[in-house]
Specification:
Length: 80
């Protein structure tokens, strides 16, 4: 799943370039320019990919290290 998340990030980078809609003046639902709707869709897609990244591609070993108490302070009895 980690490589799927990486692939989705690359896909978002590629489809973020919306050169084909730049000069399109159509309005969606009568008020929203199609380019703005496209960018809103990209933002929602980015939020979903970020959720998947934190769920499946997050390095859990870093959290374990961060939650361990500092070894030097315990051994020498020093406090900060």
């Amino acid at each position: 799943m980690r490589y799927t998340v990486y692939g989705l990030v690359v896909l978002l980078i590629i489809i973020h370039q919306d050169n084909w809609l730049w000069d399109d003046k159509r309005l969606i639902l009568g008020f929203m320019p199609i380019t703005l709707l496209y960018q809103a869709g990209i933002s929602i897609g980015a939020a979903i990919v970020w959720f998947l990244a934190t769920k499946f591609a997050w390095p859990h070993h870093l959290e374990e290290v961060a939650q361990e108490p500092p070894a030097q302070a315990q051994e020498s009895g020093e406090t900060e």
